[in-house]
Amino acid sequence: MRLYEFEAKQVIAKFGVPLPKRTMARTAEEAEAAATSIGGSVVLKSQVLSGGRMKAGGVLFAETPAEAKAAATTILALTINGLEPTGVLVEERRKVVQEYYAAVTWDGRAKSPLIIFSDMGGIDIEEVAEQHPEHLSRTHFSNLRPFSDYIAKVAVSSVGVTGNELGALTRIVSALARAFLQYDMTLAEINPIARLEDGTIIALDSHMDMEEEARGSQRALLTELAISDDETRQARPPTPFEIAGGQVDASDPRGVAGRVVEFDGNLGLIIGAGGGSLTLFDAVRAAGGRAANYCEIGGNPSVGKAAALTKLVLSKPGVEKIAVMMSVVSNTRADMMARGVVLGCIEAGKDPAETIAIFRVPGSWEEEAVKILQKYHVEYVDRTVSLFEAARRAVAKLGGS
Amino acid sequence: MSILVDENTTFIIQGITGREAVTMTRELLDYGSKVIGGVTPGRKGRDVHGVPVEDTVRAFTARERVDGAVVVVPPAFATDAIFEAIEAGIKLIVVVTERIPRRQVAQVVEYAKQEGVRIIGPNCLGVISPGRARMGGVGGALESTNRAFKPGSIGVMSRSGGMTVEISNALSVAGLGISTAVSIGGDAIIGSSYAELMPLFEADPQTKGIAIYSEPGGRMEAELADYMTAVNSRLPVVAFMAGRFMDEMPGMRFGHAGTIVEGRADTTAEKIARMNAAGISVADRIEDMPVILAERIAKGS
Amino acid sequence: MAMFIRVDIDEALQAETALHKRLVEVCPVDIFAVDGARLVTVEKNLDECTLCDLCIDASGDKVKVVKLYE
Q1: ipTM of the complex
Q2: Which of the listed CATH numbers 3.30.470.20, 3.90.850.10, 1.10.3720.10, 3.10.25.10 matches domain A96-224?
Q3: Closest-CA residue of chain C to A338
Q4: pLDDT digit string (tens) for B90-133?
Q5: Is A369's Cβ below 8 Å from some Cβ in C?
Q6: Cα distance from A330 to chain C (closest Cα, Å)?
Q7: pTM of the model
Q8: Angle of CA points B152, A390, A313, to nearest 5°
Q9: Which CATH superfamily, name and number, covers B10-299?
Q10: Cα distance between residue A230 and residue A228, in whole Å
Q11: Is A367 helix (H, G, I), strand (E, B) or coil?
């Protein structure tokens, strides 16, 4: 879950990272007032969950409050990569002598946290890694022992930084690592860290991603940042259909059914489990099908939950049929899935035989599932029909319609 | 032979009295696995399908040999359970629990490494060596498990539990069968990666080839590719790559916690190229996997 | 009316009040409830029946689970 820049700065400020004077503004008038109180030259930055703000015109400078108001008006109206800004951050503009880069993230391969530090900040860090490897350090650290400042010192000193700057940068990187660990971040980045003309070192921009799984345990921080439970912070905002799916999933703790992503096709998908869903979505596309949605079912959902998901998918305009397909199931029960989708069709006022293009959920309790499907004349196939073939048959049924 | 588990492997189930764990216990006993006990604090003296329940792991390790533990406790208590099993001297821990925060997973994995303990998972269905034993719910009910997992020559590793069964089923239907199948887990940090399990398959004479399930996100395929390049493996490896549509949707999370395209290296296109360069075949469909494996085994590559 | 499952309670069971509580406890999907002195079924939970037979065992066959799709 990505944090906005102003939120990320709020987090690192708690750990003592020095930052420019700043105010978050939601309107052009607020931006004007912020510029007045900060005084002098300011920078206005779009608060949007997307990279490439500078290139897109989401970062502007202003010398006067009136200019700041005009700049904020422009920024607030600017969509970047399909995302609307939530506001504009107004900051004092500082003259920068040198830029640094610092990030803490997980290295899945080494299975430990990793500090990445460079004395070439402000530019694409992957480019630095490729073109100037001597200007970039990678420092893994233990996740069992408490974090110790020397680790940050090693990261900074590895690129050749010494003198007064070593201490100041160590404090910032150390604070970043502590924020990363304490708040279950998957990425905590400051880019750039800037050395100013007077020698002080401050953080100019910050980006943080918090682990989705940690939302429950980090409720205190989320409350402090005023982030509500229904903010998904995905690459695009959730559609009403997706929000309704989330509600289906939350309605019953038994199993997963309702994590949906909306597309605009005519074939509704009731698919699972995790890997099976990815495979089946590819398979539908490979067969020339147009999916109405992506979803994941698993963990043996209740009949009611499977029915609610079915009704939701059928309620989507343009959905002509649904395909119910899963990889061979171990703990999810085929008969519960059969009951759920048949019930969902009937509650939606549709004939299961007409509506369900194919049912392919082999595995536990398959024999009972078959009896249910036979009674309602739903076409089913067993495990001898592959996921790809099942998807192909489902898509073919829509061919004539 | 097999890897990780065999007919003599004794193990306990931590969290045995939970709803899904009770079913799993029944299925494991039906399969002939040596489930010697279960742990649920406060339930000492009870039994689950005849398997004795204790309050602590040490209650079992103090009196008998315990080779492994299956952890099915809720996420908030999972790492505590794993630490307890490691401290009690258990050397193989299968973590079924999903949604354990990454930092906690990294902690137990680091500790396990220090103590010489093998962790499979988290967020996995476990390990099965057909006809010998299984640890974890992989396959489900007995009859369905026996259909999907016929004894044979292919080692299976999958980040997806469901696809462990689906791919094994395809290999069983094709007559190749399975030596050992390992559901390695879908999280961003897991106890055992493809590359880390390869040496075990390498040393298993029953295994003649490897099938893996792969998806976007993470560097595990790159690690496997590096392994295959560095070691002159006798085993042909075939991968199935799911989630190709995700390349067009960076930043969107689908499926497992580890499955998201955040950078170029996370895409399926990049992973396929990398694996191909390391001699790993990438199948377009699951049903193509046994065909490619049979050909490569016959050619001796 | 549930679509897939009907649960019949033998009238003889109504006299055995000690068993009522046992049945309420044993069902993993809360199909049984006590209404005054009578054991009743909870309509909305019937279709969640997992066919585990625990109620049949606990009642000494005085409960019947009928699959309406057979």
Answers
A1: 0.96
A2: 3.30.470.20
A3: C4
A4: 999 999 998 899 999 999 999 999 999 999 999 999 999 999 99
A5: no
A6: 15
A7: 0.91
A8: 130
A9: Succinyl-CoA synthetase domains (3.40.50.261)
A10: 6
A11: helix
